[in-house]
Amino acid sequence: MYDALINLAYVVSAILFIFGLKFMSHPRTAVKGNLVSAGAMLLAILLTLLVTGVGAYVVAGLVIGSIIGIVLAVKIQMTEMPQLVALFNGFGGAATVFVAGAELLRPNTIGTSDVLLAAALSGLIGAVTFWGSLVAYGKLQELQMFKKPIDIPSVHLINAIMVMVLLLLIILMTGTGYSVLPYLLIVIIASVLGVTLVAPIGGADMPVVIALLNSYSGLAAAATGFVIENNVLIISGSLVGASGIVLTQIMCKAMNRSLLNVVFGGLQSAAASTGPAAD
Amino acid sequence: RYHALVASLTIFILAIFIGFELITKVPPTLHTPLMSGSNAISGISIVGALIAASAGDSWLAAFIGLIAVILATINVVGGYLVTHRMLEMFKPKR
């Protein structure tokens, strides 16, 4: 009964997220939309704490994370905001990697193949998001090693091979129920993939890449929702995943580029990206 | 058990459809704030992180969960705050 009430209250949080996103896409209501969405998040966190109890350990984590988040968000220059979004997005992706990993380590986790598949996907997408976002951050911050698009020889072939290996590992993990080592390998290979996917893309295209990675981190959160069987994660994760793809496409159109062109044509755009990163 | 999976999949697919329909016409000035705002929403994995961190059955899982709590909290708190700052910039011009 208690659990059912909590789940019902999670629905309120999910509805608020939907309204928040809706408001955010119109100039007049955008500020309100962000606040509604933040309220939805606060509600979801409080509901979760009602179930788990408020341990000192967990509060310490919340306080440390809040302080780091506040300091980063307040100190940042207006012109550096896109790369900060990339960094935050990466942290969100990394969080899903750790959540799915932690669930696999728990003896009480039901190791059915659907849960294992969801865990593998959270780890994969989360790791790609984290490392891809870090590279995007480096490019926008104009760190020395990312000044020019990085030319990796036959990068598409290498990526294709890595995707193949990842698929095999996922099949192995879901098929055999033997999870911890395959999960680690998935996270490691997906980390490399995150770097090789974003590194060849020019700095000017980074806003689009961040929008795409943002969509990925939503999908990773949705996958995590399947692991812990929590609807609010599934709903808001897939909301971000789907609306993120739409936003990515809108941004591509505004820049007169196609999404495929940005993702696969990284090297051709090298000439265009020598100027300052456009936002 | 598979009833629960089908229910979750149904919710997933319906939410994907809502996500596609939700934002259609966005003025270019709102592209970056909207991206930042939806990025903050993807920090919802904080719910999973809190559950993992409170795990009583595995010390290691709880520790990894704590790292996830810190990372997700940075994403959530920083994400909403920076989005708010971006949107504040537009205010005087309106």
From TrEMBL, chain B:
Residues 9-91 form the NAD(P) transhydrogenase alpha subunit C-terminal domain. This is proton-translocating NAD(P)(+) transhydrogenase. It is found in: Cell inner membrane. It catalyses: NAD(+) + NADPH + H(+)(in) = NADH + NADP(+) + H(+)(out). The chain holds residues 78 to 171 of 171 of the full protein. Its main location: membrane. The keyword RNA-binding does not apply. Its EC number is 7.1.1.1. GO terms for biological process: NADPH regeneration.
